[in-house]
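Lecture notes, continued. The same structure-token format from the folding unit now serves as the input rather than the output. Read the line below as a description of shape only.
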């Protein structure tokens, strides 16, 4: 699927990738984006793209994502895959097209820019067939902003005996599409019982803007419940579920002096 922007909030996680081939001379003269999942398909694509033997790719563990710009009238055009991110819906591959400056000399020669990378096959697997199901290619323009959900990571240690309650695991922000943060670090070091950190207090990098309520609590430190409070909560839960607790039995009455078979002491 090809798109020019990201619609809605996207939960992201950056994925490492490996460059396979990059250049400005391809036999593929029309704009094209493709995902290659097998060695046979890789051989076929490379035969269309160029001559010779294609670079080695282990398709047991990887797939190839390729972007072709098609024929361009001059030098100075390039394309580059800049990021691969795991999202709730699959894998998003971002790429940037670069054009030559409007002023200055340009070689009057036909070019066909392309970029190919290998990404891990398990980025987004179908739970039954264990194959990569979704790969979206997004054309990213410099300066373009997108709305994304960025994970929140806690660092440090709160007050001893306090109970750390992380109420938000992500923050929704607006950021430049070519400079999306991987995560936000929130330090709880020394945070005392009864205090919290709100979304508006989380440090954001330049060019990133919080979307939503800045007063929303990200993390708080609560007083740990006592044993009596836990027991009371358990009793309430059992009562709601219709479970009756067994009351402890009273200690049996003490037996009379002497045991069966023994004669009573003689009377004086």
């Amino acid at each position: 699927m090809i798109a020019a922007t990201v619609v809605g909030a996207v939960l992201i996680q950056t994925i490492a990738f490996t460059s396979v081939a990059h250049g400005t001379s391809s036999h593929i003269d029309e704009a094209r984006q493709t995902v290659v999942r097998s060695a046979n398909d890789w051989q076929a694509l490379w035969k269309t793209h160029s001559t010779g033997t294609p670079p080695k790719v282990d398709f047991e563990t990887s797939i190839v994502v390729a972007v072709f710009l098609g024929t361009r009238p001059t030098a100075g055009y390039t394309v580059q895959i800049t990021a691969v991110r795991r999202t709730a819906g699959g894998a998003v591959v971002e790429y940037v097209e670069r054009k030559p400056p409007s002023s200055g000399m340009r070689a009057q020669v036909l070019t066909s820019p392309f970029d190919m990378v290998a990404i891990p096959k398990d980025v987004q697997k179908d739970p039954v067939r264990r194959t990569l199901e979704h790969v979206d290619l997004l054309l990213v323009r410099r300066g373009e902003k997108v709305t994304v959900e960025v994970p929140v990571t806690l660092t440090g240690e709160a007050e001893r005996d306090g109970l750390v309650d992380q109420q938000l695991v992500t923050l929704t922000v607006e950021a430049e599409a070519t400079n999306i943060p991987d995560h936000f670090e929130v330090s709880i070091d020394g945070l005392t019982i009864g205090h919290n950190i709100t979304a508006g207090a989380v440090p954001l990098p330049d060019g990133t803007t919080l979307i939503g309520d800045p007063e929303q609590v990200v993390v708080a430190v609560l007083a740990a419940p006592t044993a009596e409070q836990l027991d009371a909560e358990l009793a309430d839960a059992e009562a709601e579920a219709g479970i009756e607790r067994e009351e402890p039995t009273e200690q049996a009455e003490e037996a009379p002096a002497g045991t069966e078979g023994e004669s009573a002491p003689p009377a004086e």
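Point for the exam: The helical segments are 39-49, 227-240.
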